[in-house]
Amino acid sequence: MVLNMAAEDAGARRRIDYWLEQAQITRALMRQCAMPIRPDPGIRREPTPQGRFMFEHYIGGRWCPPVAGRYLRPRSATEHGLGGSVARAAAEDIAAACTAAQQAGSDWARCGRAVRRAELGQVPARITAEADALAMAERWNQGDSALDFELRCAERQAALLRDIVRILPSPPVGRQQLESPPPVSAAKLACAADTAPVELFQALLPLLYEGRTLVVLLLYRNTGHLPVRLLQLLGIVAASLPPGVLNVLSGLGAEAGVALMWQHFSTRARNTAASQAAH
Fold it and tell me: What is the pLDDT confidence band of residue 181, given thresholds at 50, 70 and 90?
């Protein structure tokens, strides 16, 4: 009799866990549906007669200007009157992004892999909806007015993310998902601004799926060429996720890259000190 009651209790707990998980997924999907059809693309009009564009940092769920107000500007305008500026990250911007990622970490890890998979599964549709914004970024990169080719770029990027999400491992069932402890720190990634999206997202999406929040820094070598396709794409992905889960910055490699490195080592030192104090 005792064994039967224990088995019934275990079965009841599994059913409760299942329905709670389904409710979480439903809320995640409803939140995605409630989002504006056209999220903020992250481009601002500069007050200049040339009508150029300005990319800011994406930190804590919103686009915001760099703390020091500095931007990278191309040395010469591109064809068709296109051009603009890209935010130039300093140590203060990187610290703000790391803080936002750290604050979002507990909720993102606690929601479970099934919910995170549902969140990531909505991203390709958001990319397709933002085909115009990606087309603008592509024209900025190439100085090409072939809009039909650029719109196909959004379809390719959406298919790329869809394929990566599809091959993510299946989420655990019921109480099995509580076996692994939640991550305690945000992941920090730095890459060249002209990196192929497939290379970055193959590393980025599995980290998000495992419950890590991210700070991604896109580095430019100089102001001679400022590719923005990856920056725009990351902005769309970040706006599709809960605030603080994905934070995107841009800057010069010799400046922002060093600041990110110092932030990484200082975070590790704080975590080590806290661990030693706890013991």
Answer: low
Tokens of 276: 């030693």
Burial (0-12, 13-18, 19+ Cβ within 10 Å), 23: exposed
* 256: exposed, middle or buried (Cβ count in 10 Å: 0-12, 13-18, 19+): buried
Whole-angstrom distance, CA of residue 98 vs CA of residue 259: 12
C-alpha 87/C-alpha 85 separation (Å) is 7
Burial label for 21, CB within 10 Å (0-12, 13-18, 19+), is buried
- pLDDT one-digit tens code per residue, 42-56: 444 333 333 357 899
Domain boundaries, the chain: 2-278
Q: Are strands 214-220 and 187-192 parallel, antiparallel or unpaired?
A: parallel
Q: Would you say 87 and 249 are in contact if contact means Cβ atoms under 8 Å apart?
A: yes
| The 246-252 sheet, strands edge to edge | 62-64, 57-59, 246-252, 214-220, 187-192
Please state which of the four CATH numbers 3.30.750.24, 3.40.50.720, 3.40.50.150, 3.40.605.10 is assigned to the domain occupying 2-278: 3.40.605.10
| H or E element at residue 198 | helix 197-209
Q: What is the pTM of this model?
A: 0.74
- Which residues have a Cβ under 8 Å from the Cβ of 263 and sit 6 or more positions away? 91, 94, 95, 98, 188
- Quote the DSSP letter at residue 50: T
Tell me the sheet residues that pair with 252: 220
Tokens of 10: 């275990």
DSSP structure class, residue 16: H
